Amino acid sequence: MIPIIGEIRMVSFNFAPEYWFPCEGQEFNKYSYPDLYEAIGTTYGGDGKDNFKLPDMRGRLPMHFGQGENLTDYPIGKPVGDEFVTLRNNTGRAEEPATYSRAPETAAVNTQPALTINFIIAYRGAKP
After folding, report:
1. What CA–CA distance (Å, rounded) separates 55 from 24?
2. For the chain, does the N or the C end have fewer beta carbons within 10 angstroms?
3. Chain-centre distance for alpha carbon 103
């Protein structure tokens, strides 16, 4: 099956095959990979003048883009969420709301059940 340039796949192996890159946020000169730049542009970063970035899926979960009823709009390429969250109750009283911190050195582990997987993106193949 010929991949479509810019296609992202989840795979069970820990390398990127020929004509694929790992999705690790790498920055490339747009003139080195013009077809890939044409497909994804600066969706995942870069200045668009000279460079662009690949998506960085390390430590992230994929999420559908768009907006559901009464939900926040998530455009393609927008990273969301916090890696570290620490809940605190400043008064010690249960009726007081907890606050949170984004500081990794004080964060508790709160990992949801997951299965590690590798994400790759095609830089050669059929044009979209």
Report:
1. 6
2. N
3. 20
